[in-house]
Specification:
This protein is an all-alpha fold. The protein has one domain. About 80% of the residues lie in helices and about 0% in strands. It is built from eight helices and no strands. The radius of gyration is 18 Å and the shape is globular.
């Protein structure tokens, strides 16, 4: 019973209203049953897609436009896309917490440093040293960082103080 209540709460969040509206548009309405089936999952994927695309584009543009090493461009792109990602996930996906905006931002950025490290070491090795194509390596790293970021955010960043106390 409790599990059903949580599913219902997830699917009825007020911040999901914009996504509900988008799915009700005539041409997109065709995917509404799939969307309704796993609403929270699809919204997470959509927000993650925006973050991922912004990170990818920033990395490639910075690398090509400013002739930066792939690992340097990746770090700068990470800073920019981490801010975008934090705002999107804080407002649209994870439940509001009683933690301050700055507190959550610092935890979010700190947690994402781990995946930045995974990405940076991989890009340094495969792109800067072994001269693989940055675009290909970045695409290979996307699912790895997406999965890691989801679990880090869910477990470490967007958790209420009361939930943390209950687990202790």
């Amino acid at each position: 019973m409790e599990e059903n209540k949580n599913i219902q709460d997830v699917n009825s969040k007020p911040q999901f209203a914009i996504f509900d509206w988008i799915v009700s548009l005539p041409i997109i309405r065709i995917v509404k049953p799939l969307y309704e089936w796993k609403k929270a999952f699809w919204i997470y994927c959509f927000l993650g897609f925006i973050s991922t695309v912004s990170n990818y584009i920033f990395t490639i543009v910075l690398s090509k436009t400013f002739n930066l090493y792939g690992s340097v461009a990746n770090v700068i792109a990470w800073m920019m896309s981490t801010m975008i990602s934090f705002v999107l996930f804080r407002y649209f996906y994870f439940d509001r917490t009683n933690n301050s905006f700055i507190n959550e931002l610092m935890k979010f950025a700190s947690a994402r440093i781990f995946t930045l490290g995974v990405e940076s070491v991989s890009i340094l090795l495969f792109v800067d040293i072994l001269h693989f194509d940055l675009r290909i390596i970045k695409l290979i790293l996307i699912p790895v960082t997406a999965i890691l970021n989801y679990f880090i955010s869910k477990i470490f960043v967007f958790k209420n103080k009361e939930e943390k106390k209950a687990e202790a």
